[in-house]
Amino acid sequence: MNDFWPVIDVLAHLTGSWRVRRSVRDLASGAEGEFTGGTVFRPFGEGEDGDGGGGGDRARRGGAGHGGPGLLHHESGTFRWQGVTRPAQRTLRFLPGECPGTASVRFADGRFFHDLDLTDGRYVADHPCAADLYRGEFSVYDEDRWRSVWRVGGPAKDLVLTTDYTRLS
After folding, report:
1. Fewer Cβ in 10 A, N or C end of the chain?
2. Distance of alpha carbon 165 from alpha carbon 138, whole angstroms
């Protein structure tokens, strides 16, 4: 039996606001850190005060209705590492993928990051970065909870980043 929740349209599903909690573990040194904050997935060009143009109900059902050619993902919060807490943020672009219901994830500057296909409720993506390899595993548990686990390995890196997302109502 499958413990994952299939997503028909990843852009529609992600639209809206999410609480984010990320643990960061350096497997080589044993150091641990944590990011806490939120992320908003909203259609390109929508005002900062919106949550996806009312597409939240359709997004929860996993159907069409993300409201445009793609989503802007903006994450902000605080990151605590080795006793120091500081503000942190990032922006990604989620564009329609080559297959219906999938996404092509891009960095803020437009460079390709990875594909995302959650039609089975789970997906594994690789992103080579110089001498490092980022391997992300995405798992959807239900309409309001999903997780990403990135394993980062390379000559100077041995990290695991586990992020839990919970939809805000």
Report:
1. N
2. 11
Percent of the chain at pLDDT > 90 equals 82
> Which runs of E-coded beta strand occur in the chain?
16-26, 32-43, 71-81, 84-96, 103-107, 112-116, 122-129, 132-142, 145-153, 158-167
The residue assigned the tokens 């594909």 is: 115
pTM (two decimals): 0.85
**What does the chain come to in residues?**
169
Q: Which of 137, 157, 164, 159 is nearest to 149 (CA)?
A: 137
Q: Are strands 145-153 and 158-167 parallel, antiparallel or unpaired?
A: antiparallel
The amino acid occupying position 63 is G
C-alpha torsion angle, residues 3, 8, 9, 14 (rounded to 10)? -30
Sequence-ordered alpha helix ranges (H) in the chain: 10-14, 56-61
Two tokens at 87?
């503000």
Give kind and range of the element (H or E) at residue 44: none
Question: What are the tokens at 23?
Answer: 């643990």
